[in-house]
Design a protein that fits this description.
homodimer; alpha+beta; 60s Ribosomal Protein L30, Chain: A; Phosphoribosyl-aminoimidazole Synthetase, Chain A, domain 2; 2 domains; 7-stranded mixed sheet; 5-stranded mixed sheet; globular
Chain lengths: ~325, ~325
């Protein structure tokens, strides 16, 4: 029998995708970073939603301003993931007894600060009472047809890149990260990645989504993975622990994307002139039947045993 | 000192509206039934979100199919409230341990059924774990500029109408109601109401929003208010209790709207030919300084003492 636990979050999403449903007019429906559709006469629209719940995505002790920032930033990261331009947001908040007015003001100032910095306007929402603090922000943006970049489209031979540093985000960065919107806009305008997504559930798990949607395999160069300072610190000199953290912690909100070999040199030349954010080539795409191949310092190795656990699972 | 309790939900919304915020490009922002904005080259877009929380908007014992239906229908009702056409939805669900796979399947089938009946496609969402079941659906639709109908715009002398029957919704109808989309579309196309909203927090409280936004007063004819069978039954023959229920219970999700006296006869002639849903004239708009005037069988009466309590308050 199917259970929520046996299905897991992604099994659950796969199930939902299969159910009979009206419409199917959307260009991108359930299962990518954002939904994409068009309206009469208009541009393509991307539409995404994310929920943060206390004790899961933040602790009660976290600064409310930062919780507000994160609640907006995770949605912006989803829009960046497809190459879109975020425009309007609505925020629905469930407020338990322990939340007071100063907390709420501070929370909203963080969310509005993040929205403002990326040109997004908060236009509505809902406020209800409940037993745990929970925030759902939904975001509408636009994306030009030629710039829309999804998880499908990576081809054997493409270079695999990631922005920034990975791992140890829960030590603090998950509340203060900057969604990679300018970087995404640059990429879709000038480089046209073949596939792209944001790293939210851990590098290896998220890469799995690109492989599945693109029907391809990948070679990962472990010695090239940009391990964050937080992940290094938490692992106290244990290289495997640091790599495990970088590959599986989740909540990095960096861009993971693939670029045709022809475009890779241009990308690597232009990037440092525009962005202070690090860009790292961490592998390349291969044929689908190869799955994920791991190399360390150029030598092929077996699947590392610290990869036993999967990425973050909700159920 | 300001507290959440002293502010209440509407004070809270007023506060948020005042805060400095980027943008302000939206045609309708925080505080109406949906936000409305345009995107380059496109039609006007309406954007709304609603959260249902267990123990507040439904009980655990409620049929999950109905909870799913309601979670979609409340959003559709918001789009109906402004005269829009709903198009795409995303659903974010927080799942506690007591929710199993059959519950979820049934929940989604209810939400998808409701979406399908009104031409809406579910295109994405988020699933997270938490301690209480909570569903936030956000909806994007379109609305023609000439058809957009807001809470502002009612004028002294306009007739005040409500669809359906009011009160006692919590006895069951709040889980099975039909959003008044066809009715709303008819009204904005053929009658052009001067102001409109859906009754979600109780007739008197919601009418207050129209008065405030339109800067007008109203005369309410108590003997004309369409009291639902459920409200009658619950009040066991006590007329005041039944009226109190109809005026204040909330969750009716009927349309409340105002029509210029010139259009009223056309409306009353066309309505019964098109809809089985009842339409009732329950009063008329007056000058703002008059506030709300109550009449019973044509005679002006003092503010009824059963109106002491306000509509539903979240905090």
């Amino acid at each position: 029998m199917k259970t929520l636990k046996s299905l897991g979050e992604f099994g659950f999403i796969k199930e939902i995708r299969r159910w009979p449903r009206s419409g199917r007019k959307a260009l991108v429906g359930i299962g990518d970073d954002t939904a994409v559709f068009s309206l009469p006469r208009g541009p393509l629209i991307c539409f995404t939603t994310d929920t943060l719940v206390e004790g899961v995505h933040f602790e009660r002790s976290a600064l409310p301003r930062r919780v507000g920032w994160k609640s907006m930033a995770v949605n912006l990261s989803d829009v960046a993931a497809v190459g879109g331009i975020p425009k309007y947001a609505v925020a629905s908040i469930t407020i338990p007894k322990w939340v007071n007015w100063p907390y709420l003001k501070s929370f909203y100032s963080g969310a509005l600060d993040c929205a403002g910095r990326f040109g997004v306007e908060l236009v509505g929402g809902d406020t209800v009472k409940g037993r745990e603090l929970s925030i759902t922000i939904s975001l509408v943006g636009i994306v030009e047809k030629g710039e829309l970049t999804l998880r499908r489209g990576a081809k054997s031979g493409d270079s695999l890149y990631v922005t920034g540093y990975l791992g140890g985000s829960l030590a603090g960065r998950h509340l203060t990260f900057s969604p990679r919107l300018p970087e995404s806009r640059f990429l879709v305008k000038h480089i046209r990645p073949t596939a792209m997504m944001d790293v939210s559930d851990g590098l290896i798990q998220d890469l799995g989504h690109i492989l599945e949607e693109s029907r391809s395999g990948a070679e990962i160069w472990l010695d090239k993975i940009p391990v964050s300072r937080a992940a290094r610190k938490l692992s106290a000199g244990d290289r495997n622990a640091a790599l495990s953290s970088a590959c599986q912690d989740g909540e990095d909100f960096e861009l993971l994307f693939t670029v045709s070999p022809r475009k890779a040199p241009v990308l690597e030349k232009m990037w440092p002139r525009r962005f202070a954010v690090r860009l790292t080539k961490i592998g390349r795409m291969t044929a689908a039947f190869r799955g994920i191949i791991y190399t360390d310092k150029g030598i092929r190795i077996a699947r590392p045993n610290w990869l036993n656990k999967e990425g973050y699972r909700h159920f």
